[in-house]
Amino acid sequence: MNRYLSRSRSCLDIVVCLTAVILFAHPCFSDNVVSRPAGFVRVELVPQGNTLVSLPFVPYDDSIQSVFDGQLSGVPCVVRKWDAVGLVYTDATLQSDLWYEDVESQTLSTMTLNPGEGFAVRNGSAETQTVFFCGNVVLDAGSTVNLHPSLNLIGYQFSTRIDKDDVTLASETDLLMGKGYWYEEPGDEVVEWTEPRPYADPFPSSGKPSIVQMAVNGDGDAMSLTVSCSGAAGEALDIMYQDVSSDETFVSGNGWQLAAGNLAVGGASVVWTDVGAAGRESIDNVSARYYLVGRADIDTDADGLPDARELFLYATNPDNPDTDGDGMPDGWELANGLNPNLDDADGDPDGDGISNLSEHLRGTDPEDSRVETATIYVDATLGGDSNAGLSPASAKQTIGAAVQIAIPGDSIAIAEGIYREKVEIPNGVKMVARGVVRLAQ
């Protein structure tokens, strides 16, 4: 049954405007740490019938040949675009993997397809066929579609669904990704339908890395991404993804997951194929999937986490190695099952009596309750209190810093020198002088 929108009084009497969307501030992308996002929506076409559809992504090539690119079979398969001015269809017919304006004269179709345009696809096969509409996420601040008097065939202009109460067009139904809708404009003049972008744009405006092509394989269960690279020495890439079901909306700034990490780049571009994995469905089992490419080799604050992961996976600060200020670097916390956005320095998840902060300073595992005593080295001349202290080469500078991480059974080995500090030695901690040691106040 055709999906139908109407502006008549039988529809919503009040046009409800979109709720305000707070945009993220753009990070400084002198070297882009992420690409602009891309994605696909999976659409099922009814057998031997018409399905109203639309493109929610900006295609890399808007020609009908490229948009469908070998995804359909069966005779006849026809794409029909509605001319709202002439009130007639323009058809493109599939034959031998090519789309024709006129099959008899072998005139190839020049039809183009873009977001905001609805169109009908007639599936000539006796079986349901699936197509994937791929491209870049629409990031324009707003989009306008001209609605002509009488009937219009339209689609929502952005790369997500939107609830009927949030769209500026009076609607009896939610507008879904990849779906097309008939809309009746009752007036006698052209009306501009303008929608603001419903999600944030925290992405660079241009540059690399960049997803420049997407292609589904012949079986419809794998998607290949071609990524244009910066060519920087040591460049490595992360592939992030986000799945959105038919009843969910896209949130650009969070909800991403890691699909592949630290991909080596050996040239101007790299191709990565999404075949699914443990915890990530293959593409034939999801409604829509978005992709984002991050630079795995850029870590501004040297906390062990690439900036792109900090921004889009973990919500940590890429300019601060210790986002929550608890004395433990973000990367170390994540690697050891802790929360880099929560001060959990005093926590003790393994119950061994050693705090998380002490485990970090000692270089031990906060999730392993086995306690191993250690010798902690101190050297007033050559040491540094930021050092681990677990070898003479990484000695602490003050006895107090060594005491801070010591536990019963540890030894503190103090190198010869003058130590101007007052120290209380914990019970069970042994002090060993490595030469003449003087304490001065």
Order of helices and strands: EEEEHEEEEEEEEEEEEEEEEHHHEHEE
Distance between the termini: 88 Å
Please work out how many helical segments DSSP would assign: 5
Please identify the oligomeric state: single chain
Q: Care to count the β-strands?
A: 23
Strand content: 25-35%
Parts with pLDDT < 50 across at least 5 consecutive residues: 6-30
Provide mean pLDDT, rounded. 90
Proportion of residues in helical segments: under 10%
User: What coarse outline follows from CA principal-axis ratios?
Assistant: elongated
Radius of gyration: 30 Å
Number of domains: 4
For the sheet with most strands, the description reads: 6 strands, antiparallel
Side by side, the strands of the main sheet go 4-10-2-20-17-18
Write a compact overview of the structure shown.
This protein has 5 helices and 23 strands. The chain is mostly beta strands and 441 residues long. It has 4 domains: 4-29 and 41-196, no CATH class; 210-312, Sandwich (Immunoglobulin-like); 322-370, no CATH class; 373-440.
What attributes characterize this protein structure?
single chain; mainly beta; Immunoglobulin-like; six-stranded antiparallel β-sheet; 5 helices; 7% helix
